[in-house]
Design brief:
Elements: H1 18-23, E1 26-27, E2 32-34, E3 40-41, E4 45-48, E5 51-54, E6 58-63, E7 66-71, E8 83-92, E9 95-99, E10 106-113, H2 125-129, H3 131-134, E11 140-148, E12 154-158, E13 164-165, E14 170-173, E15 186-188, E16 193-197, E17 202-207, H4 211-214, H5 226-244, H6 251-263, H7 274-290
Helix pairs in contact: 5-6, 5-7, 6-7
Keywords: Exosome, RNA-binding
Protein name: Exosome complex component RRP4-like
Subcellular location: Nucleus
Length: about 290
């Protein structure tokens, strides 16, 4: 049994960054945001008796006179141009249904997929019959949000070599609100792993390899070395630690957590201990604040 004194733990105040406490306003459902009808009502708010009131728990965002409340925890809403990761749940009818951490499964049509070899041609009946050879149920795929239909279903596309089926790796799920907004979602980290920060909260970690090999539609069962497996496991547990303590996730914060765990010589499995997760989150916040 491991026992740790409370005096040895870093103070909880270290998990609250000065920028968050000074510039971010948190509200709860029913709390009055403004008593001024000149502000426009955005998502997460409603008007009552001339007051703008929060309908969800989250932080207030104001753009000119438009006020919205972004939930602290939410399902993925979808935005055109987002790079996301999804898991195939159904195949048929010339389309794949994908779980993308949203309220509805998204849709990837065969016509919006680039076939192996870079072929850009009209898809025929034979291509439709061989859809499971490309992506079968349970497969993970990196795609782009093309548009949102009137029925609320997201239409996806994978028309370039940047997108496609994901090979060997690990998937970690976090709240989409914890991801730093970034146009570049795919990063090759110095530790030897590639991380896709899907805008929908699905983070995929795999060994670093060339782009064409990473997004091919062929299954690769080549054995991955012990060192890179440990690195992937360490990154996964670092993401879980940061997510548990609501630390924003980005390549910078993830590498800070990874390097901090190595400096402290923490075994991969011990990164899931509550006190260790807390220490890693605090150390990461300090590194990010100093950078």
């Amino acid at each position: 049994m491991e026992i740790r004194l409370a005096s040895e733990c870093p103070p909880l105040a270290a998990l609250i960054t000065p920028s968050a406490s000074e510039h971010t306003r948190l509200v709860t459902p029913g709390e009055v945001i403004y008593e001024d009808t000149s502000y426009m009502r955005g998502h997460g708010t409603y008007m009552e008796n001339g007051q703008q009131i929060a309908s969800v728990a989250g932080y207030v965002t104001q753009v000119n006179r438009l006020v919205t409340v972004t939930p602290l925890r939410q399902l993925y809403q979808g935005a055109v141009g987002d790079t996301i990761v999804g898991r195939v749940t159904q195949v048929g009818g010339g389309r794949w249904k994908l779980d993308v951490n949203s309220r509805l499964d998204a849709e990837l049509r065969l016509v919006n997929v680039q076939l192996p070899g870079g072929e850009q041609r009209r898809k025929n009946v034979e291509d439709e019959r061989g859809m499971r050879d490309l992506l079968s149920e349970g497969a993970l795929v990196c795609v782009e949000v093309q548009k949102e239909g009137q029925d609320g279903i997201l239409r996806l596309a994978a028309r370039t070599t940047k997108f496609g089926k994901l090979g060997q790796g690990t998937l970690v799920t976090v709240s989409p609100s914890l991801l730093v907004q970034d146009k570049q979602r795919m990063h090759d980290l110095p530790c030897g792993a590639r991380v896709i920060f899907g805008a929908n909260g699905y983070i995929y970690i795999s060994p670093t390899c060339d782009q064409e090999q990473a997004m091919s539609y062929t299954d690769n069962y080549e054995e991955i070395g012990l060192e890179i497996r440990q690195t992937i496991g360490r990154l996964c547990n670092c993401i879980r630690a940061l997510s548990k303590h609501s630390v924003m996730l980005s390549p910078t914060s993830l590498m800070a957590a990874h390097d901090s765990s190595l400096q402290q010589d923490i075994p991969v499995k011990d990164l899931l201990k509550p006190d260790v997760m807390r220490d890693i989150a605090i150390a990461t916040l300090q590194v990010v604040a100093d950078s």
